[in-house]
Structure formats: C-alpha cells, structure tokens
Structure prediction request, 221 residues.
Amino acid sequence: MKPVRGALGSSTETTAAACESLNLERAYTSLDELAADATVDVVHLCTPNYLHFDQASRLLRAGKHVLCEKPLTMDSAESELLVALVRETGKVGGVAYNLRYYPLCQEARALVEKGAIGQPKLVHGSFLQDWLLYPGDWNWRLDPKLGGQLRAVSDIGTHWLDLVTWITGRKVTELCADGECGSCAHRDRRLRLRFIPSGRRLKRRNDRVPGQRRPPSPLVV
Prediction:
C-alpha cells in the first residue's frame, strides 16, 4: 500500500499543521498542484459540499481516483455528470460511507444474507448527534449555498440510508417524509422519514441530543 503523499487544506496554515501532525511530506498549495502530481493516485475530498462537483471533476480528468465525502454533489444532475465522467475516464469514484465497515454493521448484513433472521419487514433506526445544539452554534452546512438544500438528509441521513440499503440489500423506491423544526429558524431540530421499498417499510429518525459537540474535520486530505 502506498503512503499518503500530502495534504491540501483551506489555507497554508491549516495545510502545514495537517502535514506536521500526520507526518506528511508534501504540503500542496492548490488543487492544480495536487492534480499535477503524478505520484498521487487517489484523492480524498473532505471539502464543503458545494465544492465537490468541481473538484471531483478536475481530479478525475487529471487521472486521479476520487473518494468524496457525502453528499457527493449539491443535486442529482451534478451526480449524474460525475457518474458519466467516471465511466469516461475509467477511474474509480466513491463516496465515503464508512459506517458499513463497523463490525456490528458487518454482522447485521451477514445475518440478513444468511437468512438467519428471516425476511426483514420493518427496519427502524436513529442517528443521534449533539453538535449545533446551542443557539449560538454555527456551521457552513447550515447555509444552503454551501451545504445544499437537503440539510440533515444529505448531511447525516445519507449515512443511515446507505447503511440500511446495504444491510438489507434492497433499494429505496418510494419515500414519505415529514419534518419538525425547532425554535431556531436557522437550523432543523428533527427529521423523520419513512422509506417504502418494494413492500418493505423502512423508518428513519434524525434527532439532536444533548452532549458534547464534535470537533471540526479537515477539508482535504
């Protein structure tokens, strides 16, 4: 396995700090510089959502495989173009749905595949988060121009949706949803969705709960 070559952050300061903490040899100054590095085979995009389409497109055309954080793009039209570009370039494009690889999730999928629990008729799950809990909290994901219109669905709901379709081996074909907003107009507090694929009912609930806030994540690694 090849080592990680370097990092590109949101500024020269964050890039230098990431390279120092991770012991990386190359601190890139631009996406063009990164794309031009022939020693780099794969790029992991951890940037704000509105940048995904442009950056992934440029890197694929530069001959790089791309692993992108979710959501892949701001809308399905951009996603469709990226899928076509992957086929055109022959490179691998992926979305970082890491929850699939948790041991309990692997075991759940294996039980379903073996028929150990019979045929699932109802799947219920929650994704609990405690960040953006306080009235003064803010994050770029709350701005539709930066994070997109779907908010909780594309931010954390997409993890639940991918996980449950992966475990059950079934695709969602219909959707019935309702949402609830808290007192703060700038952020949603709870979202409930019900997925109904081919006669099987899937329920999902998104809740924010009290607790510690999660730390900020790096932009591009």
